[in-house]
């Protein structure tokens, strides 16, 4: 489990969340941390990159945290800030081999179906439906939306090749 800052790079919001109008901080703690996140995926990729730079070849991550959206219908209270919705979200990432290296089985890289199984286990005993979809952070044709009770609750898929190259990741991590 990782715990990351809620303020992130504006680039992450544009590229990974498709958010062209993020919530800007008036006084950021660092110039690269100038907006509030609307997705947990950028933080997970940063943690992956940190681990890869230290020669870790198998990484499994998840985060449960708040994301931030502009919403004029939210009023000020002791738990809310007027004009901003702050829901809790969960996201995860898998990279590298499915198992630790062992002599009794061939090495296999994690794929979409491994992480889809993780999402199903996370939601059990409920049974989500998976439908072909597109997401700004994910590879076209290798992404699915996750549905519960006729409502889309998220996405699962491989990191888009453009972002994989931009973040200098050797193989495609699978995200949800």
Task: Describe this entry's structure for a reader.
This protein is α+β, with helices and mostly antiparallel strands and 176 residues long. It contains 4 helices and 10 strands, in the order βαβαββββαβββαβ. It has helices at 10-17, 41-52, 112-123, 161-166, and strands at residues 7-8, 35-36, 59-66, 69-70, 84-85, 88-95, 129-132, 138-148, 151-159, 174-175. The strands form 3 sheets. Strands 3-6-10-9-8-7 form a 6-stranded antiparallel beta sheet, sandwiched between helices. The chain has a two-stranded antiparallel sheet with strand order 1-2. The protein is globular. The model has no long low-confidence stretch (mean pLDDT 93).
Topology record:
Elements: E1 7-8, H1 10-17, E2 35-36, H2 41-52, E3 59-66, E4 69-70, E5 84-85, E6 88-95, H3 112-123, E7 129-132, E8 138-148, E9 151-159, H4 161-166, E10 174-175
Antiparallel strand pairs: 1-2, 3-6, 4-5, 6-10, 7-8, 8-9, 9-10
Quaternary state reads single chain
The N- and C-terminal alpha carbons lie at a distance of 14 Å
Tell me the helix content.
Answer: 10-25%
Low-pLDDT sequence parts? none
User: Which shape, going by the Cα principal axes?
Assistant: globular
Q: How much is the average pLDDT?
A: 93
Give me the count of strands.
10
Order of helices and strands: EHEHEEEEHEEEHE
Structural class: alpha+beta
Beta strand %: 25-35%
Using only CA atoms, what is the Rg? Answer: 17 Å
Strand order of the largest sheet: 3-6-10-9-8-7
Count of alpha and pi helical runs: 4
- Biggest β-sheet description: 6 strands, antiparallel
């Amino acid at each position: 489990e990782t715990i990351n800052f809620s303020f992130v790079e504006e680039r992450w919001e544009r590229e990974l969340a498709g958010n062209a109008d993020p919530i800007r901080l008036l006084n950021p703690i660092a110039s690269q941390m100038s907006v509030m996140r609307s997705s947990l995926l950028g933080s997970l990729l940063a943690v992956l990159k940190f681990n890869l730079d230290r020669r870790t070849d198998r990484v499994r991550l998840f985060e449960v945290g708040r994301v931030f959206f502009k919403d004029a219908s939210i009023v000020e209270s002791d738990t809310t800030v007027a004009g901003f919705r702050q829901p809790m979200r969960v996201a995860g990432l898998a990279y590298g081999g499915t198992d630790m290296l062992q002599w009794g089985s061939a090495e296999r890289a994690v794929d979409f179906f491994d992480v889809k199984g993780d999402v199903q286990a996370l939601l059990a005993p409920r049974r989500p439906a998976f439908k072909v979809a597109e997401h700004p952070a994910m590879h076209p044709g290798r992404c699915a939306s996750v549905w519960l009770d006729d409502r889309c609750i998220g996405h699962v898929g491989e990191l888009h090749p453009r972002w994989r190259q931009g973040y200098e990741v050797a193989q495609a991590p699978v995200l949800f």
